[in-house]
Automatic annotation (TrEMBL), chains A, B:
InterPro entries to which the protein is assigned, alphabetical: Asp_semialdehyde_DH (IPR012080), Asp_semialdehyde_DH_beta (IPR005986), NAD(P)-bd_dom_sf (IPR036291), Semialdehyde_DH_NAD-bd (IPR000534), Semialdhyde_DH_dimer_dom (IPR012280)
Stated role: Catalyzes the NADPH-dependent formation of L-aspartate-semialdehyde (L-ASA) by the reductive dephosphorylation of L-aspartyl-4-phosphate.
The entry's keywords: Amino-acid biosynthesis, Diaminopimelate biosynthesis, Lysine biosynthesis, Methionine biosynthesis, NADP, Oxidoreductase, Threonine biosynthesis
GO biological process, one term: diaminopimelate biosynthetic process
CDD domains tied to this protein: ASADH_C_bac_euk_like (cd18131), VcASADH2_like_N (cd02316)
The encoding gene: asd
Full protein name: Aspartate-semialdehyde dehydrogenase
Reaction(s) the record says it catalyses: L-aspartate 4-semialdehyde + phosphate + NADP(+) = 4-phospho-L-aspartate + NADPH + H(+)
Species, as recorded: Enterococcus sulfureus ATCC 49903
Length: 351, 351
């Protein structure tokens, strides 16, 4: 494995792209060269990678000539158009958008859970949705021991999942509130979903809509959690349902997760399994008021789990509180971990 | 019913007490006189009631002489000490603290659900916990039609539930964040629970602890929702479990509620039942992005319900999003509604 890779980052100026560059800096992946790609508008800007100043180039099909690995996070439309181009040029694509996730020929991977699925890749690997990834990291160690029948999750999601402009909007609204400006005069242009018709305040509010609604009155975000869980865990029989809510947090998604396992499990055992699990940090001691908190998960790559307790009535029912930085394990860190797993499994090549 | 009452407000300067005075101003209750009581520290301050300036008096046992109705919201310790004194002096007490709620001789009342329980009062009536009340208002109309087996609720609770100082702390922390002060230098003295050992930031965070922890690793807030639901609905067989979370919202608790009914119900029917239900405002039209939002529930006395949808797997499973102003329907408005019901049922007397 004396290979060394040319790695392209597509969407290098975005909230996730910025984190991808940082994650690559920290990565064990042998990197020969990093190429930063973005829209024409951002071309010419510079970013630093391991002390070297790199100029951002405009994304075109030819950008992928000589690229071994391309990490995409520039929206589904860009992935749809350019990921196949990258593959044609011989690059393996790790795509952070939802565009290819449910394509049966595309592995959908959380390395701690289903790295084995990478073996079947045909050039494109999809990175799951942020809210799905952290739930998978927390639940897989439990599922391996006692199975998993059912998940009911309510999320508390950070605005950074909606991009840099949403963060800015939250800050502007928070200042408006502190200035005692009436809420109907706040700037509200982005949330709950940039592409939807109406926009609502997020500062000092909770919005039970992430992404747009589907025909069954669930949102796309909710259905992503449902469908991606089944694909990643390779089990269509798991019952999954979600309520996805945006709250005024900048970084770090929190999740209130109820599960039913095949066999009842003791809390002490679950704590032990999670202590030993890859990518998990157990923070669970009510006597010390120790539990995961979004604000302290920021800039961490792990998934934090606490508030583990038995259901009060159902013997195989359990409740957990799961927190992770949505831009890192939820996006950039998971994408780079997929790239590292591809390298370790000698799969950085288009079949 | 040509009676007219002398009404005492105990804890008149607090977040809830302030709202109680406003709710009494708007009330249909025939009021002869209002007496405002608080600690020695607040005595001498004035408040306006229907254009009249009232001086706050120090709370002592003799304060209740000539009082017909006393609304308490000054902490459990004050209720423990002074509610029996009020009753001795002939006043009927509506207590907003948790102190008497699970006392089998004390009715625990949400007027829309179990006003009939008032008939058995022996001088003290308890107002349920804020997070319980709004859930009861939303679920009772459904339970009456198709029964109720099970509730799993995750809450998104406002800081005003922790009092005026918690609101101030949120604002100070929000400004600290906007000033880019490091989080370890923020003022954190109140939340998650004033009486607990450790305090954490709430601005741009989510805290999965409200009140202190009990021996079973649930918090008191969570166990209140469990035990109070069974008492109010007069059914110990209902399975209830809660995860209670504080989020950076000033007014308005939101709840992600999953229920299983005895008999499956159509969403269209549920919408109709809730449209006709007392105290409920249906806000449920995904095509118009219409759903309840905490920030718009502020200063409203109703409970707002939306995001109603069938579970994806369980035929009798349903999900709802329930929002209400925690200081109003969750506290002051419900207390005054209890007083109004007592008047209408001719029960404003100590038996």
């Amino acid at each position: 494995m004396s290979k060394s890779y040319t790695v392209a980052v597509v969407g290098a100026t975005g909230a996730v792209g910025t984190q991808m560059i940082q994650m690559l800096e920290l990565s064990t992946l042998p990197i020969k060269e990093v190429i930063l790609l973005a829209s024409k508008r951002s071309a010419g800007q510079t970013r630093t990678f391991r002390g070297e100043e790199l100029t951002i180039q405009e994304l075109v099909a030819e950008s992928f000539s000589g690229v071994d690995l391309a990490l995409f996070s520039a929206g589904g439309g860009i992935s749809k158009q350019f990921a196949p181009e990258a593959v044609k040029h011989g690059a393996v694509v790790v795509d952070n958008t939802s565009f290819f996730r449910m394509d049966p020929t595309v592995p959908l991977v959380v390395p701690e859970v289903n790295a084995h699925a990478l073996s079947a890749h045909q050039g494109i690997i999809a990175n799951p949705n942020c809210s799905t990834i952290q739930m998978m990291v927390a639940l897989e160690p439990i599922r391996q021991q006692v199975g998993l029948k059912r998940i009911i999750v309510s999320t508390y999601q950070a605005v950074s999942g909606a991009g840099a402009r949403a963060i800015e909007e939250l800050k502007i609204q928070a200042q408006s509130y502190l200035n005692e400006e009436p809420v109907d005069q706040w700037q509200t242009e982005i949330l709950p979903s940039g592409g939807d018709k109406k926009h609502y305040p997020i500062a000092f509010n909770a919005l039970p809509q992430i992404d747009v609604f589907t025909d069954n009155d669930y949102t796309y975000e909710e259905m992503k959690m449902v469908n991606e869980t089944k694909k990643i865990m390779e089990d269509d029989t798991i019952q999954v349902v979600a309520t996805c809510v945006r709250i005024p947090v900048v970084q770090g998604h929190s999740e209130s997760v109820y599960i039913e396992t095949d066999v009842p499990a003791d809390v002490a055992d679950i704590r032990q399994w999670l202590t030993n699990a890859p990518g998990v940090v157990l923070q669970d001691d009510p006597s010390q008021q120790l539990y995961p908190q979004a604000i302290f998960s920021a800039d961490q790559t792990e998934t934090f789990v606490g508030r583990i307790r038995k259901d009060l009535d159902v013997a195989n029912g359990l409740h957990l509180w799961v927190v992770s930085d949505n831009l890192l394990k939820g996006a950039a860190a998971n994408s780079v971990q997929i790239a590292e797993a591809l390298h370790e499994m000698d799969l950085v090549r288009v079949p």
